[in-house]
Structures
1.
Amino acid sequence: MANEITSSSPASLSYDREKAVAAKLLQRAYLRLVAASICDKVSQPKGTGTTVYFIRYKRLNVPLVPLTEGVAPANNGSLVLEQVTSSLDQWGDKVTITDVAQLTTLHPLMQIAQTLLSDNAQRVIDREVQIVMLAGTNVFYGDGSVTSRSAITQSMTITDQTIMKATLLMSDNGVPPRFGPSNFKENASGGPASGEQMVPGHYLAITSGNIRRDIMKMATASNMWVNVTQYQNAKRTYNGEVGDYLGLRIVETNFIPKFSRLGNKTAAASAGSNAGGITGLTLAIGAGSLSNATYYWKVTRKDLTRGFEEAISIEHSTATGAGSSSLSFTLPSTAGYVYNIYLGSSSGDANLKLAVENAAAGSVNNITAVPGSTVTPPPSNRVAGNDATDPDNIHPMYIIGAEALAWVGLQQLRTSVVSGADKSDPLDQTTVIGYKFMAKACRLDETRLLRLELPSAF
């Protein structure tokens, strides 16, 4: 991915001329990026590869019978090592600015490019942390009475009971709270060291404004909400923290996915326009290596400013009707989105594999064989029942204990500016500004991160 600013591309750059604009730049939408801030930061030493390893020893079982005098206890267990691994990814982007663009625009393009790239990098980091959080296996769907995203109904908005069930689950699993006594430095007497203030430990919740407003609606009746400005004893606060409810510290972010259903709920999808009820999607059957059979597929959509697979179709099925066939997907042409296509010869998300990744809007994608990828699609929103009970969106809420996540960096975020004449640019006509980093978020313990998936009344 790269971006280029010239005197004519994009054409809107022509607006940035002194005769046509005021000196003040309009502000961009404000993003509250919080996910990365709750990760423990770990550096991967150079020369140790791109795989990070975390280890712990499991608890020993307790003895079940008292000792007999003079008899050594039986071996009640052995040391068992648990290992968590993660492979680091490298990310980066750049902006190329031409000399003519710098000469003909009013505002300082170099400074603007650096600011935009910084925003770009932080969104990538926040997204990558959340993608790891979304892949966690410790999940609480709706009101807890269902076991999948597709079974959540609109009536399953968050309640006091849901919060208490979730925090009780964390407590029963032995998840230590964040900033409890074990997180503080101690003095010789076992108390908090100088400068350390002992405050009650807590679990942290990160969620959207929709779920926060659902909680506020409940709190109005119970009068249990404690606004962050009302905290006593100068509690440490998180970026984006808005308050405390039932002992759960709430952080609100507007950079978090909202899962919606893409298309309709009719499983069988014939070739033609608006296939699967997805407006603008055209499905055609052509020549290829697919046998005469029924194939199963899903399409997901990503907003280019966010990068999450948020709009997700249900699993559709299409029969080729002949051997040596292919399925050709012409994607909706609306700008600002890319699409993933998953396909398989058997039903079920586990049997659908990534066939096309980050396909451009309006592109034609011809799938001639069942993919061998290991990547499966995210689960769909509601796929059965009365439309009136279907939630418009499903919102994640992450509940986090101590030492749940780490951000491991082999190469920390760094920027570079390249200019000057060389063989590829003998007249010094361009300046390139970019960033890169090599890092990865890692779930250190599945039980310490609980994800709630919820509809909202807002």
2.
Amino acid sequence: MTVQAKSLPKTEFRIHPATRPGHVHLTVADLDRQIEFYREVIGLKLHWRDGATAGLGVGNADLLRLTEVRSARRYRGTTGLYHFAILLPNRRALARAIGRLFTLRYPNYPTDHIMTKTTYLDDPEGNNIELYTESPEDGTMAFVNGIPVIRRANGAPSDGREPLDVEALSRELTTEDRLALREPMPQDTKIGHFHLYVADLDKSMHFYHDVLGFDNMGMVSAGGYHHHVGFNTWVGEGAPPPPSNALGMRYFSFVLPNKTELEHVVERIQQAGLTTEQTDEGVLVRDPSQNGVLLTDRSKE
């Protein structure tokens, strides 16, 4: 049953600006195959494996967790994960990632969002992944009446979905890079954002902005970033949540700087009349579309 968040008094409450994305946890049907993909194609490291669950990343905290459910299958037309985005530290690292994909002949779609450079691909079970790096020197994006307005640094407009100049990007690579395309991603790689399918835009904005306290940037973020959570109704307004045996996202996480800041957000959630679940890692809450959000703090990493 979906519980709508109560309207809260207007306050200046905002989630701590140092809050950042943590990891995404996916249900998968074939754990061995998925681990191989994320290691060999994406370039993550296997941090640990315990039975049917594994954690991967770049050597620090997990960026991705996978839990195998052999009977799970893909459902369409439901809320859930549109994509999760891995943020690389610079153009050179993105060039290596795309070069790796091209070497493996793995289908991907390099795109120039002007203020970011990116490519998109699907894993073997249909989870969409964005690999990107920031390029604010190339232009800006702002939302006007809910519509993104993107301009190049010279003022020229863009739709933000232009083909990426892969040849120019590849010039970032050194000879050593070209010989080491299969090396793991850099240790300063992290999760950049999550993009969700939701049932209702207004209810989603109320939850993430008014309840959790993320900044409203047209999408939502902490600390003025362009977006940490995006959402859309492209599978249909009023879309149902996925069944319990669905492939895809179990939850995504955000890491607050300390326990006190986490408690502030949890108190806000409880004031809104929403149910929370205490886990070993933090507090799990579900947005109005039943997407799971795990809130934790740095002590749990």
